[in-house]
Specification:
alpha+beta, Immunoglobulin-like, 4-stranded mixed β-sheet, 33% helix, binds copper (II) ion
């Protein structure tokens, strides 16, 4: 059985090689009419490529201004920013303080004690307001300004083990 399959495979490989060889040998016969068509469509292709390049760059610039991620190296002063430290653990959050004011930007300094977690802030309709990764050994800065008071929920956005779904805490905006 195995030797039959082996033989069939060899014959098929031989057929594929034969087809490639046939195409390769016959493609050497240069056709002057065909050459002019190739030249024309290579020109069209270059223009299309340039158009896509300019379009892609324009869309990228327009959709990333202002850039959604804050400057991670900048020190955000406590005069202008409310500073909140967030530590993610399996399976709870330590967030200090857990109450902030509306109208003034909040700088969340987010890290993790064990594995990767996702820090997600949800409003009262359970719509995601802002998020960043919580990673061990790193501090990710997230800046968000709450426009009005309310109760917000913090949920983990990265599957981090058995009780991942229970990783919930509350943020109060006054
Ligand atoms: Cu988690």
């Amino acid at each position: 059985m195995i030797s039959t399959v082996y033989a069939i495979t060899l014959v098929c490989i031989g057929l594929v090689i034969a087809v490639f060889y046939y195409v390769f040998v016959n493609s050497k016969e240069a056709d002057p009419d065909y050459q002019s068509i190739i030249k024309k469509w290579y020109g069209v292709r270059s223009k299309w490529f340039l158009f896509l390049l300019v379009l892609g760059l324009t869309v990228s610039v327009l959709t990333t201004t202002p850039f959604p991620t804050p400057d991670q190296k900048k020190e955000y002063s406590s005069d202008d920013y409310q500073n909140v430290t967030v530590d993610a653990h399996q399976w709870y959050w330590i967030m200090t303080p857990s109450t902030v004011k509306a109208g003034q930007p909040v700088e969340f300094k987010v890290s993790a004690a064990d594995v990767n977690h996702g820090f997600g802030i949800y409003d009262e309709h359970m719509e995601l307001v802002a998020q960043t990764q919580a990673m061990p050994g790193y501090t990710n800065k997230l800046i968000h300004t709450f426009d009005k008071p309310g109760k917000f929920k913090i949920l983990c956005l990265e599957y981090c083990g058995l009780a991942h779904h229970a990783m919930i805490t509350e943020l109060t905006v006054e």
